[in-house]
Amino acid sequence: MPGSVADRQLLEPRTLADALRMLDQEGPLTPMAGCTDLYVSLNFGTLAATRFLNLWRLDELRSMAVRDGLLSIGALCTYTDVIRSRVVRARLPMLVAAAREIGGPQIQNRGTLGGNIANASPAGDTLPVLAAADAVIVVANSAGTRRIPFVEFYTGYRQTVLAANELIVAVEVPRVRGRQWFRKVGTRAAQAISKVVMAAVDDSGGDPARIAVGSVGPTVLRLPSTEAALAAGARIDEAQRMLLEEIAPIDDVRSTAEYRRRVAANLLASFWNSRP
Ligand SMILES: Cc1cc2nc3c(=O)[nH]c(=O)nc-3n(C[C@H](O)[C@H](O)[C@H](O)COP(=O)(O)OP(=O)(O)OC[C@H]3O[C@@H](n4cnc5c(N)ncnc54)[C@H](O)[C@@H]3O)c2cc1C
User: Fold this and answer.
1) Nearest atom, ligand 1, residue 168 CA
2) What's the pLDDT tens digit per position in 16-71?
3) Which residues, other chains included, contact 42 with Cβ-Cβ below 8 Å and sequence gap of 6+?
4) How many alpha carbons fall within 13 Å on the CB side of residue 71?
5) CA 230 – CA 61 distance, rounded (Å)
6) Ligand 1, atom 11: nearest CA belongs to which residue?
7) What is the 40 CA–ligand 1 centroid distance (Å)?
8) Which residues contact 106 (CB under 8 A, 6 or more apart)?
9) pLDDT single digits (tens) 86-123
10) Whole-angstrom Cα Rg for the chain
11) Residue 180, helix vs strand vs coil
12) Cβ partners under 8 Å of residue 30, min gap 6
């Protein structure tokens, strides 16, 4: 049964400082960005929250720029913003590849990077990209900001270290050396949530390969043992065995654990064997 909006309250800050003050003093409030996830919960009747903080007007969270050598992407940047951004295309093409495969044009116009991260689904398509790129999540409250390495942001299934008075304000990505690679396997190319999604950076830049995978565990996973095996010169079948020990897929409405195991192993081989 769809939830009603009539009994819900919306706060409309015009600046980030206002938003952070409201979160601190007038909470508890649920941040609202593009609403593409929140509206689904409302429609399913599972959206318990009744008081919301609308972030949509906070243009301060829409910048994309390189600062001090780091690519900084504001939390409110939509997938369309990412696809159109020259600086993101140049520095992080695997994020553009992920953005192009998210939903359809409507979702790409409204869905935000910050929303994908905060929603904390293990199937979020940008998350393996951010994990493989060693991204840092910048979060703020009214007292200041803190920077959290992406791999420390999730503590369990749909659990994050974000406090109730904090917002994600940006993502910072150091320069990625080496070829970037992204693959999403879903029922079809558009409007499909991933059965398995993988992002990787190969060792052509001089650093060991970095590999992250989604939809095969309670959170998006980096694969440190698989990466170490490849760096030590393991054969691909040995690395695939290592990967299978690092992932923990389940059967659900979208796929089976067995299918996900096979596809994740195949994706690893596809990435590794496509190195120039
Ligand atoms: C038809 C459809 C197709 C979809 N396809 C895909 C897909 O292919 N791949 C994929 O990964 N996702 C997909 N999604 C899910 C969704 O579009 C993305 O997760 C999107 O990035 C969510 O962003 P949003 O701005 O809409 O978030 P919202 O719905 O506004 O918020 C989501 C959650 O994040 C919190 N939040 C939002 N912004 C912030 C912030 N700055 N700080 C703190 N908390 C915040 C909210 O409180 C809420 O809990 C799809 C959704 C739909 C409806």
Assistant:
1) 42
2) 999 999 999 998 999 999 999 999 998 888 988 889 999 999 999 999 999 999 99
3) 2, 3, 5
4) 20
5) 38
6) 124
7) 10
8) none
9) 999 999 999 999 999 999 999 999 999 999 999 999 99
10) 19
11) strand
12) 38, 49, 51, 52, 53
Cα–Cα distance between 242 and 257 in angstroms, integer? 17
Strands 51-54 and 30-32, how do they pair? Answer: parallel
At which residue do the structure tokens 């043992």 appear?
225
Q: Hey, is 193 helix, strand or coil?
A: coil
If you search the block for the tokens 């190195």, which residue do you land on?
Answer: 275
Residue 227 has phi, psi (to 5 degrees) of -60, -45
CA distance 30 to 52: 5
In 3D, which of 62, 116, 107 has the Cα closest to residue 88? 62
Closest C-alpha to ligand 1, atom 15 = 37
Sheet containing strand 64-67, strands side by side: 64-67, 70-74, 167-173, 136-141, 144-149
User: With contact defined as beta carbons under 8 Å apart, do 123 and 214 qualify?
Assistant: yes
Residue of 153, 205, 170 whose CA lies nearest to 71: 170
Q: Are strands 144-149 and 136-141 parallel, antiparallel or unpaired?
A: antiparallel
For ligand 1, atom 9: residue with the closest CA: 102
The first and second tokens of residue 164, run together, are 């109730």
At 120, list the tokens: 């904390």
Q: How far is the CA of 95 from the centre of ligand 1 (A)?
A: 16
Distances (CA, A) of 234 to 206, 228, 239: 17, 9, 6
